[in-house]
Amino acid sequence: MHLPDGIIPIEQALIYYLLSFIILALYYYKFSKSEEKEKQIINIAVFSAIVLLLSSLSIPSPLGIPIHFFVIPLVVILLGVVSGTICSFISLLGQAILLDMGGITAFGANFLVMGFMISIVTIVFYNIFLNIDEKIAIFLSTIMGIISATFLQAIMLVFSGSITFNAVISTLIPYYMFISIIEAILNVIIIYTLKNVKPEVLNLKKL
């Protein structure tokens, strides 16, 4: 899902950078007001490294295209939307600079898609379904976070003129729906494994 340099016109890329800056400034302000930000900084550092590592792995798939898991929905559920979004920003920046995953001019767009959109939609749907069933909440929120990000990226690509709407429907949506279902199942397994093996991880301070 990482957009490379050149695929987004520079004037659109600047708008995405501006929106990203506003979101990060608001989140940083909220984070700075937290009474336990020292502990959260440690959590953010640890989980940023985890996201950077795991989302960089290329896994073969039956679709013939390697899978890159996002991991961001899992982190948002564990740490909260603010800390999770900050983790996504750090990991995406690391991928862009160190691993050449995503362009520098397209970084604002990539953050809005994979950092902000996945995080905010995941936490909204998680909270909606949590009172019904936690497993359902984890499963559906992961899927909705990834699919909403796919639609946002599709809109960006259509506006950039680099892809048609029909191409989006026939390629991006089915591919990321497949990934979202697999990642949703894994998130349920991971969180319930943590409940049995390392329950203190589930009690991390959320922000």
Task: List descriptors.
single chain; 207 residues; mainly alpha; 7 helices; 73% helix
If you had to describe this structure to a student in words, what would you say it looks like?
By secondary structure, this protein is mainly α. It has a single domain (10-203), classed as Arp2/3 complex 21 kDa subunit ARPC3 (Orthogonal Bundle). 73% of the residues lie in helices and 0% in strands. Helix 1 (10-32) crosses helix 4 (81-98), helix 1 packs across helix 5 (107-130) and helix 6 packs antiparallel against helix 7 (165-197). It is globular, with a radius of gyration of 17 Å. The protein starts with 9 loop residues before the first helix and ends in a 10-residue tail after the last helix. 40% of the residues are buried. The model has no long low-confidence stretch (mean pLDDT 88).
**General form:** globular
CATH topology value: Arp2/3 complex 21 kDa subunit ARPC3
Coarse structural class: mainly alpha
CATH class equals Mainly Alpha
Number of strands: 0
Q: Between the first and last Cα atoms, what is the distance in angstroms?
A: 26 Å
Q: What's the structural domain tally?
A: 1
> Under the CATH scheme, which architecture would be assigned?
Orthogonal Bundle
Provide a short characterization of the protein structure:
With 207 residues, this protein is an all-alpha fold.
